[in-house]
Amino acid sequence: MASLKQIAEKAHVSISTVSRILNYDETLSVTQETRIRVFKAAEEFNYTKPIRKKKRKKVAVVTWYTEAQELKDSYYLSIRLAVESILKQLSISITRIFSDGVISNIKNCNGAILIGHFSSNQYKLFKDLNKNIVVIGENTIKYNISCVSSDNEVSIKNVLDYFITNKRTNIGIFVGNGRTNDGLEKIYDYRLGVFRKYLKSKHLYKAKNVFEGAVSTNNGYKMANEAYEELKNEFPNAILVASDTMAVGVLRFMHDYDIKVPERVAIMSFNDSPTAQFSTPSLSSIKVFTDVMAKRGVDLLTDRLTNDSKDAQISECIIVGTVINYRESSNFQGEA
Question: Which of 10, 49, 105, 118 is the most exposed place for a label (fewest CB within 10 A)?
Fold first, then answer.
């Protein structure tokens, strides 16, 4: 694991600047370029060895965020950076397109990698513009588009079992909500479905313990505040949070209101970004291997570009496993 000092040296900033950026300190006045440099430095310590170069092609990398929005969500930022790193190692030129960019530019590329969530209308448009498309971050088999996604079911069940074994049975979940960037469709977080079904099987599900909000640090704080005001003494003693970004806000609320973590509330997050490692207390988090997802996504696309057989045109969905990293926010050692 990289230290703050290593990241600071790599990004040419101070250690305190690295810490504040990774903890989404919005009072910090730095440029977008500096923030990107810090996140990229943190991610690059985990990147794999160079990949064998292939014939030069052009690939569009399309993200569902604007550049400013992406800086507030290290999960999608890390996927894009990993995809672009691999494409560069393959000597494939990149056309980067944010949500406010010119989507039709993918027509001039050999293929496109889409990162995030898009509406059915958008997927139809993408397919009309370019037949060689792969999505990373969403299951798009129903649109006949190959995709790479991460495991949710196994990791969530294991975390819930961990909570229950440690007598934390009043379990809540903070999930992200929102709409596709064209505003046409609501984004459903499938982790909520896994959470609900599994706790119902244990007769432990409580609908009042489910809270939804946009994925940001400030909304994490706001959701924790609303939940605490609403539930008071019945506030959960364990919470699953949809992302490290949101969880940082939850931790800030707990600190401000002197709610002990993990003594009163245990917290488990998602993504295991550098933010999780350097938060206070350090966040337990389900590690999503964005570098592996990026590699598999590029593999799917390059296979389509180099293989003319009918098999290569059949849509595939690759599910990448996850690993749970237990840290201070769910450390039950010493409890009765």
Answer: 49
